[in-house]
């Protein structure tokens, strides 16, 4: 009985000397609750409480799993995914291809250049919309270059064909621009096109705001896809902020005053004056008033001292 109680309280973390003292006082037949109360009254503490800084060697792991950290890494919780902070991209394939082909040839290579540019930035959701009749062999009135690129992008689940059919020899084409704007609006993404979609802006007021704020225009410079650094103008966001869900606000930089030390605005000047860092930035009028008040105050003090002196 003595050995079993010793083993039990040793597993709890109590020292053997304290356990022996308590058992001698209470007797070998004392209940475990009474022994525990006496140990607490004596001020004996388990080793785990005395050294809380030491980490526990044993860790409970669920069956069928190697470790908790491995599971987190497998789920990708610890690793920050940059694609989560980037907006989805919806590309107007016809507009990009015709722009790359100088509005004469449907150049599929231009679509590939645009897709590669966004892939290099880390965007994972990229969709290109092209009418289905572009699958047909090229004709003189509608030439197509590098048509095999469309098949490759379709296999990669990047390119989507908008439906079209022939009725009595005439081609019936669905409006692909509506697909582009609708998908980009639902995904809260960015539309890549040089088209302004004015008809769709008049059709839906919500789409009007979205097209105005999320339309990314571009240019091709010697087979190089180049969107502008300021998609919404000089006072708008940068390209990186425009394409990210959580834009990073730039630090406020003070513009130096063009007049320098000759500035007469004082503290009312909106520009930065490096020479006034440790000075009170007062206006010229306030500085003159302060200078004129100081000698007047000194003169009054001298007159008071003279009056107090005996004749």
Explained architecture:
It is built from 13 helices and eleven strands. With 311 residues, the protein is α/β, with parallel strands linked by helices. The chain folds into three domains: 1-42; 83-243, Rossmann fold, CATH 3.40.50; 252-277, no CATH class. The strands form four sheets. It has a five-stranded parallel β-sheet, sandwiched between helices. α2 crosses α3 and α6 packs across α7 (108-121). The relative contact order is 0.07.
How is this fold's topology laid out?
Layout: H1 2-12, H2 16-26, H3 32-42, H4 47-50, H5 68-75, E1 89-92, H6 93-100, E2 106-107, H7 108-121, E3 126-131, E4 144-145, H8 148-155, E5 159-162, E6 164-167, E7 170-173, H9 176-187, E8 190-192, H10 198-203, H11 205-214, E9 215-216, E10 219-220, E11 225-226, H12 239-242, H13 284-308
Parallel strand pairs: 1-3, 1-8, 2-4, 3-5, 8-9
Antiparallel strand pairs: 6-7, 10-11
Helix pairs in contact: 1-2, 2-3, 6-7
The averaged pLDDT comes out at 77
Strand order in space, largest sheet: 5-3-1-8-9
| CATH top level label of the largest domain | Alpha Beta
Largest sheet: 5 strands, parallel
- The count of DSSP E runs of length 2 or more, i.e. the number of strands, is 11
CATH architecture type of the largest domain: 3-Layer(aba) Sandwich
Describe the structure in brief:
One of its GO terms (cellular component) is nucleus. With 311 residues, the protein is α/β, with parallel strands linked by helices.
């Amino acid at each position: 009985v003595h050995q079993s109680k010793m083993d039990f309280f040793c597993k709890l973390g109590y020292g053997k000397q304290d356990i022996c003292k308590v058992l001698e006082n209470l007797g070998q037949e004392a209940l475990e609750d009474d022994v525990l109360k006496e140990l607490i009254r004596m001020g004996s503490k388990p080793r785990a409480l005395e050294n809380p800084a030491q980490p526990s060697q044993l860790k409970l792991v669920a069956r069928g799993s190697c470790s908790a950290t491995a599971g987190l890494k497998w789920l990708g919780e610890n690793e920050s995914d940059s694609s989560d902070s980037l907006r989805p991209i919806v590309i107007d394939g016809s507009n990009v291809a015709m722009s790359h082909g100088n509005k004469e040839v449907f150049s599929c290579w231009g679509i590939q250049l645009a897709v590669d540019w966004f892939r290099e930035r880390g965007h994972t959701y990229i969709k290109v919309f092209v009418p289905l009749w572009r699958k047909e062999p090229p004709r003189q009135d509608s030439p197509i270059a590098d048509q095999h690129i469309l098949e490759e992008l379709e296999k990669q689940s990047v390119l989507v064909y908008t439906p079209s059919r022939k009725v009595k020899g005439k081609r019936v084409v669905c409006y692909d621009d509506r697909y582009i704007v609708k998908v980009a609006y639902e995904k809260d993404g960015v539309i890549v096109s040089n088209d302004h979609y004015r008809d769709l802006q008049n059709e839906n007021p919500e789409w009007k705001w979205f097209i105005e704020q999320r339309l990314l225009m571009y240019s091709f410079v010697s087979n190089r896809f180049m969107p502008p650094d300021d998609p919404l103008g000089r006072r708008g966001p940068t390209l990186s902020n425009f394409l990210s869900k959580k834009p990073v606000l730039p630090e406020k930089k003070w513009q130096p005053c063009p007049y320098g030390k000759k500035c007469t605005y004082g503290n009312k000047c909106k520009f930065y004056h490096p020479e006034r860092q440790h000075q009170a930035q007062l206006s010229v009028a306030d500085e003159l008033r302060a200078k004129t008040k100081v000698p007047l105050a000194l003169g009054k003090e001298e007159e008071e001292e003279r009056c107090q002196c005996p004749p």
